Amino acid sequence: MKPSIYLLISLISVNLVIAASPTKNPKTVADLGIEMINVGDPKNPEDPSNHYGAVAETFQISKYDTTAAQYCVFLNKVAKHSDPYQLYDERMNSDENVASIVRTGDATTGYTYSVKSPETAQLPIVYLTWFSSARYCNWINNSVIAGHLLEGSEDASTTEKGAYDFTVPVKVVTSKYTDFLNNMASTESSINPSDSLHKKLFEDEKSLHDIINCTKGDNGKYVYSIKQSNTSADIPDHVELSWTSAARFSNWKYNVETTKNSHHYSKEELTERGLFTIADGIKDNTGDADVVPTDYAKVTPGAKYFLPTENQWYKAAYFARKHYGPGFSSDYYKYPTSMDLAPVNQLEGTQMVAKTSAFSWLTDDPNDALTTEKVDKGNSANYYIDDMVVDKKFTTGDKKPHLTPVGYFSKTTSPYGVFDMAGNVSQWISGTAGHYVTFSYDEDGKITKSDLAKIDNNGQPLLVDGVTADKTIIDAGGHTMKKDAQDHILLQWQYAGVTRPIRGGGWGNEGQCPTGNDQFAKVTIMVIDGSVKRDYIGFRIAAPALATIKDEQMGSSQKALESTTGPKQWW
Questions:
Q1: Which helix (H) or strand (E) holds 314?
Q2: 270-273 contact pairs (CB < 8 A, 24+)
Q3: Most exposed residue of 27, 144, 354, 393, measured as fewest CB within 10 angstroms of its CB?
Q4: Cα(164)–Cα(143) distance, rounded to whole angstroms?
Q5: How far is CA 479 from CA 233, 340, 482, 492, 494, in A?
Q6: Which helix H or strand E contains 526, and what residues bound it?
Q7: Whole-Å CA distances, 344 to 160, 375, 409
Q8: 538 beta partners
Q9: What is the spatial distance between Cα 310 and Cα 437, in angstroms, rounded to a whole number?
Q10: Helix H segments across 105-202?
Q11: H or E element: which one contains 451?
Q12: Looking at the predicted structure, is the pLDDT value of residue 275 above 60?
């Protein structure tokens, strides 16, 4: 096999053409340079150590993380005239550690997005929320595989429905929302009436007009009241709102009723900041008692492309696949590099090769006619080593960016041939039900061990060793806590609100727990607010098995693969 640098140069040339031609309508994921890997062995057993990994059906997962070049195509289609959901983040250009995409133009003339340099086209894209990743999947479902994407289309037909439905109304208690209107939407903006909360929270919410009265008092202020009918039973308990109005309501409650921090914000900020930053265009709910939860993390039935579920990601990363058949082995590797030994963070060995312009920051001396290229011997990952003995703590040494091109470690894959499931960037995955994380403490109170536990049929934590928690409830730092028989403390994380799971670890040394190669072990899971953007979180996509996707929706490479290997087994 040729060194990975040559393989990636050819991939870059394809993606640069796509990134530089925003008017072209991709008709398949292959047109975007996305290569899908079929993950077979349906009905495989779960990992007995933590009950993850069982998947009933064959499915596909992208071979590489989504790249800057691929994300550029998306931006040039759905964020050309505006960017209401903040799909682009300026740090995609300004953060030298990970920079890959430049935006030029403005909302008046139109935006254009391009890769920062030829070298960065194959870097995984970061600084995007879970919701940005989900909208990318919606875009593929609505536009790419249908082949009808309109230039600059920026509406619900492309990003708000598809794999995930962000148009589902959120229900809020009617009386509480009426109080909210009287507190925050009693006046119009003197500068721009269309920007007033009265318009945003009431006028634009057409579903409210048959339920809530709005009149103007002698002082010129709006007064809101619930419309009275013959019987109180006719008054609905909840009103249906767009997510934005529900989020503004939740911010108001959080700032005024919960934290009593109203003096920190101006009146305008009481609705725009708090649990959600409205300007970021996040779509989710708080789980507040007055807001009926809406599970936006659920994959819509029939979706063609989506973020992998936790079991799908886990299986593709760790399932050892010892043999095929009814008596599957239940073995799972400890690391997603097809090994039980922790990966290293550097290429090893050297060979002299002709200098190329690609990935100059990864070669010893870009000024030499010949340069030394290191070789992946397998079991490698891009991550930071916090060790006084190690000279090169980052995979890239001191050179920036610190990200490596997707597939840079050419001989390191998961058991199914998927690259970079350990290191480089963590990956957003579709949310699941609640989980528990168990923490063991040493005599100094420091965490010494963290294990994953799922919830049993009785709603209690099911630990790795099979011991369930007792009923002891501990209030620690505002969290609801429990203890198991070994006196481990159980902290419950719920994914039903804004929190989302990520897997795979990342390149950096900040904001990740744990750091080093421990973050790649199968027992490690991170749960993070889905509305945040980080320099170490990207995503990859998943899909049903090839047999469920029509021939015209498949790229030529997928068709060739199916014709030579058959639809059931892919190894």
A1: helix 310-318
A2: 270/184, 271/184, 271/197, 272/248
A3: 354
A4: 14
A5: 37, 35, 10, 8, 12
A6: strand 526-529
A7: 41, 13, 11
A8: 427
A9: 15
A10: 130-139, 174-184, 197-198
A11: strand 447-455
A12: yes
In the prediction, which pLDDT does 466 show?
Answer: 53
Strand ranges (E), 161-237: 170-173, 212-216, 222-226
* Residue written as token pair 């090839």: 546
Q: Rounded to whole angstroms, what are the CA distances from 475 to 386, 437, 443, 471, 478?
A: 34, 16, 21, 13, 6
- Round to whole Å and give the CA distance between 48 and 318: 13
Q: What is the pLDDT of residues 90-99, one digit of tens each?
A: 999 999 999 9
Angle at CA of residue 488, ends 527 and 505, nearest 5°: 30
One-letter identity of residue 467: V
The residues spanned by each domain of the chain are 1-166+303-431+495-571, 170-292, 435-493
Tens-digit pLDDT profile for residues 456-504: 555 555 555 555 555 444 444 444 455 666 666 555 444 334 567 888 9
- Where does residue 427 rank: exposed (0-12), middle (13-18), buried (19+ CB within 10 A)? buried
Region of 85 (left: φ > 0; alpha: ψ -120 to 50; beta: rest) is alpha
How much is the pTM? 0.74
Cβ neighbours of residue 57 under 8 Å, at least 6 residues apart? 42, 544, 545
d(CA 166, CA 247): 13
Percentage of the residues of the chain whose pLDDT score is greater than 70: 61
Give start and end residues of each alpha helix (H) in 21-90: 68-78
Q: What's the pLDDT score for residue 187?
A: 83
